[in-house]
Amino acid sequence: MKKITIFYWVLTSLICFMMTGSAIPNIMSDAMSVQGMHVELGYPKYFIPFIGWAKLLGVIALLLPIVPPRLKEWAYAGLAFDLTGALFSIASIGKPDWPFLFIPLALLAGSYFLYHKRRAMKQDAVSMSKRQLAVSAA
């Protein structure tokens, strides 16, 4: 359980760091974000801060331990949609750096897999302790 938790937090921290690093310039609509998303990819300018806030909210949902599981699932899905859309958008304009987007996608997939593995192990531990309490009470 401890190894899984450590790997989960390493992968989750890395993907959250990367997504925050791309969300903040989007939120601020800095020149590089406008150049990349509006000029090169053709997205409207109002979309840039919107996608930045969406990424930042997804990161917060992944990092907070008190977030309900359904909301975490939506956060994982939203970040996956963002990364997949970025991969497709960048590849379709012919930029050569699109393969690098597989790195954050792999980190996100690993974090998602370990999130479910951790959650299942916690539920198993809780059900086992409930059974032990029931046996000791009888």
From TrEMBL:
The keyword Metal-binding does not apply. It is a multi-pass membrane protein. InterPro entries: DoxX, UCP030066. Its main location: membrane. The chain crosses the membrane at residues 47-67, 74-92, 98-115. GO terms for cellular component: membrane. This is DoxX family protein.
